[in-house]
Amino acid sequence: MTNPWLADRVERIIRDPRRKLAWGDRLFGTMRVALSQGVEPRNLALGAAAAVDYALRAETGTAATPDAARRFLLDLWNGETDDGLRERCLELAVRALGELAP
Predict the structure, then answer these.
(1) How far, in Å, are 5, 7, 41 from residue 2 at the CA level?
(2) What pLDDT, in 10s, does the model give residues 28-66?
């Protein structure tokens, strides 16, 4: 895609991954809308998995494992109301971790 009006640098795009991984924000908020419409958001899950891995590497110095990713997201979403899609979102994101390059 080429758009002269979209000149965001990678540094800006990956800034503040915790906010972007919030239950109602960009990645999981959009995944929930897709799931509620019967669409499996595999590509969004891959982006979410990459963001979780990035956040965990930045915070702990280690790559995301399925258990660490799950704990990270559940901690991040603590206090958020589950609309019945939480487990499915977790499943999709954790499964997508396996698709990331080491």
Answers:
(1) 9, 10, 23
(2) 999 999 999 999 999 999 999 999 999 999 999 999 999
pLDDT for residue 9: 60
Our CA dihedral for 54, 55, 57, 63, rounded to 10 degrees, sits at: -70
What is the DSSP code string of the chain?
---TT----HHHHTS-HHHHTSTTSHHHHHHHHHHHTT---HHHHHHHHHHHHHHHHHHHSSPPPHHHHHHHHHHHTTTPPP-S-HHHHHHHHHHHHTTS--
Question: What is the value of pTM for the model shown?
Answer: 0.87
